[in-house]
């Protein structure tokens, strides 16, 4: 057996047409910082490495052959990515102010904690979970 120390990163794919919008979404709206942005000419693709609180977290890729999810949201694979926040109402208001599609706040029946779902420019479901 081996020991996993942490989740290293999460890869998110976008189309070239939405790359700049997604970059703005993850940096200006969600507050990630850019570590490195690379254009990979042989693939005609960008790779954007993003950090949260100084820790490498997300790789945002643009691919010309990007495909939509086969079904939504219950397709096989990553269902959603959840971010923990201390002030859920403040975060909701910020997303709303920035024209992000958000759903109503719900309560986790197991923990009693509030959460809400919202969507990136690709329609990728994301969650804010009250810490």
Can you tell me about this structure?
It is a single chain. The protein is an alpha/beta fold. The chain has 2 domains: 67 residues, 2,3-Dihydroxybiphenyl 1,2-Dioxygenase, domain 1; 53 residues, 2,3-Dihydroxybiphenyl 1,2-Dioxygenase, domain 1, CATH 3.10.180.10. The protein has 2 helices and 8 strands, in the order E-H-E-E-E-E-H-E-E-E. The N and C termini lie far apart (31 Å).
SSE inventory with pairings:
Layout: E1 10-14, H1 19-29, E2 33-40, E3 45-52, E4 55-62, E5 81-85, H2 88-97, E6 106-107, E7 114-119, E8 125-130
Parallel strand pairs: 1-4, 5-8
Antiparallel strand pairs: 2-3, 3-4, 6-7, 7-8
Summarize the structure.
The protein has 131 residues and is an alpha/beta fold. It contains two helices and eight strands, in the order βαββββαβββ. It has two domains: 1-67, Roll (2,3-Dihydroxybiphenyl 1,2-Dioxygenase, domain 1), CATH 3.10.180; 79-131, 2,3-Dihydroxybiphenyl 1,2-Dioxygenase, domain 1 (Roll).
């Amino acid at each position: 057996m081996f020991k996993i120390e942490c989740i290293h990163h999460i890869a998110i794919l976008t189309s070239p047409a939405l790359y700049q919008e997604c970059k703005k979404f993850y940096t200006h709206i969600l507050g990630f910082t850019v570590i490195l942005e690379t254009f990979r000419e042989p693939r005609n693709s960008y790779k954007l490495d993003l950090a949260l609180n100084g820790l490498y977290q997300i790789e945002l890729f643009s691919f010309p052959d990007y495909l939509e999810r086969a079904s939504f949201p219950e397709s096989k694979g990553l269902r959603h990515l959840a971010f923990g926040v201390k002030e859920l109402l403040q975060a909701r208001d910020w997303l709303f102010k920035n024209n992000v599609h958000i759903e109503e706040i719900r309560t986790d029946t197991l923990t009693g904690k509030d959460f809400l779902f919202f969507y990136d420019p690709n329609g990728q479901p994301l969650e804010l979970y009250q810490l």
